[in-house]
Amino acid sequence: MAPAREVRRANRIALPNVAIVGYTNAGKSSLLNRVTGAGVLVENALFATLDPTVRRSATPDGRAFTVSDTVGFVRDLPHQLVAAFASTLEEVAHADLMLHVVDASHPDPESQISAVREVLSDVPGADQVKEVLVLNKADIAEPETLMRLRARREPTIEVSALTGEGIDALMDLIAREPAASRGESRRDGAVHPRRPRQRGPPQWRDPHRDPRG
Hints:
It comes from Demequina litorisediminis. The protein is α/β, with parallel strands linked by helices.
């Protein structure tokens, strides 16, 4: 299976790749549908996405990129399961941008964020990919929860994969990010190091127009 995955990756290597990660039921596959128009399985079940689901999309100005969905994470995911889902998780390490989808309507989204990052810490190279917190279900989230998540001093954007709110701003964000990352390096033929994940205050911020209007 590994050689086949490498062939598929080589076939799309010229395009920037966006990897979608998140706790189970955060809305990753629904977001993939919104961003790409793909008819991907959307199911309220653990590990509804078992293999990498890669789709092609384009930025508003017409630049193509690929989007990879991954398995939904859970707290204390056993290491043997991390190994079993290696084909899914390795897509993250090869991405140019990581969209960490968070269920902003959950009572404790911070614990889910920590659980996802704990799993990713076992994926070599994942810590080198820029991460953006996509606060999904913002249309039904408590305002206090959204304010708390905004205050984390890291890149965030609020969306609703169900209603489409905030998706235009997300597409604009995607349009800005990969061109400055490894995807641009591939196209110009140069070899540049991947930028470390941004830990401090973001250099940009979602214009923070309230996506709900």
